[in-house]
Amino acid sequence: MNHNNSLLRHLPWAVLAIVGACALGVVALRRGEVINALWIVVAAVALYLVAYRYYSLFIANRVMQLDPARATPAVLNNDGLDYVPTNKHILFGHHFAAIAGAGPLVGPVLAAQMGYLPGTLWLIAGVVLAGAVQDFMVLFISTRRNGRSLGELVREEMGQVPGTIALFGAFLIMIIILAVLALIVVKALAASPWGMFTVLATIPIAMLMGVYMRYIRPGRIGEISVVGLVLLLGSIWLGGQVAASPEWAPAFTFTGTQITWMLIGYGAVASVLPVWLLLAPRDYLSTFLKIGTIIALAIGILIVMPDLKMPALTQFVDGSGPVWKGGLFPFLFITIACGAVSGFHALISSGTTPKLLANEAHARYIGYGGMLMESFVAIMAMVAASVIEPGVYFAMNSPPAVVGTDVQAVASTISSWGFAISPEVLESTARDIGETTLLARAGGAPTLAVGIAQILHSVLPGENTMAFWYHFAILFEALFILTAVDAGTRAGRFMLQDLLGNFVPALKRTDSWGANLVGTLGCVALWGWLLYQGVVDPLGGINTLWPLFGISNQMLAGIALMLGTVVLIKMKRQRYAWVTIVPAAWLLVCTTTAGLIKLFDPNPAVGFVALARKYSDALAAGQILAPAKDAEQMQHVIFNAWTNSALTVLFLLVVLSVLFYSIKVGRAALREPARTDRETPFQPIPAA
Amino acid sequence: MFNDLGRMGKYLGQAARMLVGMPDYDTYVAHMRERHPDQAPMTYEAFFRERQEARYGGGKGRPIRCC
């Protein structure tokens, strides 16, 4: 009887699994027919739900043995401020808002050059087996250790040296992230007075909100956020007027280099302003806008049910693609990054979330479930990139050195690849979105904005609203990228002071103006310098910076999963350690292979060293190689190639040394007869 | 029914504030009453400032959001 019941209980899930498998079959196997975006969405959601129901439950019950009777840090240290037992749905929102950023939106857009299929498959498989496992695992480990941070966890469980190495790795990643995010903003705003005006307008709007919440009606977030959002929409409208005006448009038209300097100045100033004036209010705006846009996009896709125009697979799976170079393995996995696995989440899952967890059993919903949600956002980004004309996609994302600089040349090059597009379509699409050109807008954000605009403008009323929604999408991305730049510079400054403090103790003092200045300027200089190199690089910075970002992010995930493995072994649960070993091994294989290819590939389009050699040799022989136009640009290329090689070597060293320590500590723990992990002792939840 | 709507509104408000890391003030006051009846809880304004500073100005090198 019981047995029968339990079988029946699984029946709906079996049906859901079959639905998911069929939808995935349609996505994967139909060739030469147009596929509706809904197939991808259904396949993803069905498989997420089944994985959540079974795999995450297995991890919770068997691997971690979550104990609902165990008091969490929030219960034990409840202070109503940092440690507060929080309703699990409210905490889910908090956690999701913290992990969802630009990464899951940009990665899939760039990956779409190989067609939608490889990226979609990895988004689904990667999140279920690696990304969500990582978030869940780190949240679990941190919750059982009083909400400690990733660096502290590595130091405690693996030792002082790997702890410092991991901290150094996290700092490097932070710098790369800031540079690459800022580069995306530069690419989106260069020569776009409309975009530039609206993004600039966010600063006074945020300051108005800040002053209101500080002095006029303190702490009233809701009402002023509504006002802020209305002003923001107004600024998009006004931006359209500015772009159309012959007097005002030139005042807001800037080159990439000019915007770079503005961003660097902005980063330095914004990160020392009081937080209530700019950072906090703009974070409120960007968070509400982000959640709202994600919901609107999901509803939009369900209503419009767009067809995917990008083929399932393009000829660029061989690694010759214009958007980024490199074969499907390992570079697809590096490029997708955040939507499938994001190492950065390990910092969030060991940040505020574990201090708010009301019950240990909620970790499954928040850690595993939150990451599934992020992957769903990435799936929507993949859909948005695939519903636009492939010809338009390649025109926006290919560097001018490959496809040319005027619409005629671009259209004929891209048509010759088999993605038929006419110069007229390129021009009319640019007009539709209210821009003068859409060529060379790499970086994902503008492409995604075109996709979002296409979906939203067919759901929402109004004539000629494409341009409005395009700039809405650009603003939405720029807003949270700028928040990330500001907040990241602050966080990076403390990391830098912490690291340098190991050598010069005076720099650790965060109450000293001098030390803070050194930290802030050091941090801004590092990412600003990478950003500047990326912008002036005639080969197009996204080309090199994004893979570097992907490698570093996936390596951090590898570190977090190695920590998980070591902790499982120390807990004497090694028979389940495959849950973290398998994804960790896969990430290590991907990232080290990608790192080594990036370093040593003889093809200068892929290998940094080969690129540096090629340009050095040419320079020595007095030649100028395209796309560089003079000796100075040749120097840029050479210098960038060597910088990128050095960074890659650093990442490889970081990850390999953490691997070395994991094996060492893991083997020692295996020999011990009893548990050796540093979990805080069990305390039951106090009776109310 | 209006009670339910009121509860729903409060819940949504809490959820929205928690999206941006602002914990619930009433919970904090209840906690102070129960555990620290000898100390006066902060006013909402002071609570708001303290929490904003803790989230954004914290300085533990912990990013508040992801890439």
What do you see in this structure?
The complex is a heterodimer of chains A (688) and B (67). With 688 residues, chain A is mainly α. Chain A has a domain at 34-77 and 93-190 and 254-387 and 442-525 and 555-594 and 649-671: Amino acid/polyamine transporter I, CATH 1.20.1740. Helices cover 71% and strands 1% of the residues of chain A. Chain A contains 26 helices and two strands. Chain A has helices at residues 2-29, 37-63, 73-76, 88-99, 103-111, 116-143, 150-158, 160-189, 193-216, 221-244, 256-270, 279-304, 328-336, 345-349, 362-387, 390-397, 400-403, 407-416, 423-432, 445-459, 466-501, 513-536, 541-570, 578-600, 608-620, 631-671; strands at 35-36, 307-308. In chain A, strands 1-2 form a two-stranded antiparallel ribbon. Chain A is globular, with a radius of gyration of 25 Å. Chain B is an all-alpha fold. Chain B has a domain at 24-67. Chain B has three helices and no strands. Chain B has helices at 2-19, 25-35, 44-56. At the A-B interface, helix 4, helix 8, helix 12, helix 14 and helix 21 of A face helix 1, helix 2 and helix 3 of B.
Summarize, please.
The complex is a heterodimer of chains A (688) and B (67). Helix content of chain A is 71%, strand content 1%. The two termini of chain A are 38 Å apart.
Salient structural properties:
heterodimer, A: mainly alpha, two-stranded antiparallel sheet, B: 67 residues, mainly alpha, 0% strand, Sel_put (chain B), YbdD/YjiX family protein (chain B), Carbon starvation protein A (chain A), CstA (chain A)
SSE diagram, text form:
The complex is a heterodimer of chains A (about 700) and B (about 70).
Chain A: H1 2-29, E1 35-36, H2 37-63, H3 73-76, H4 88-99, H5 103-111, H6 116-143, H7 150-158, H8 160-189, H9 193-216, H10 221-244, H11 256-270, H12 279-304, E2 307-308, H13 328-336, H14 345-349, H15 362-387, H16 390-397, H17 400-403, H18 407-416, H19 423-432, H20 445-459, H21 466-501, H22 513-536, H23 541-570, H24 578-600, H25 608-620, H26 631-671
Antiparallel strand pairs in A: 1-2
Chain B: H1 2-19, H2 25-35, H3 44-56
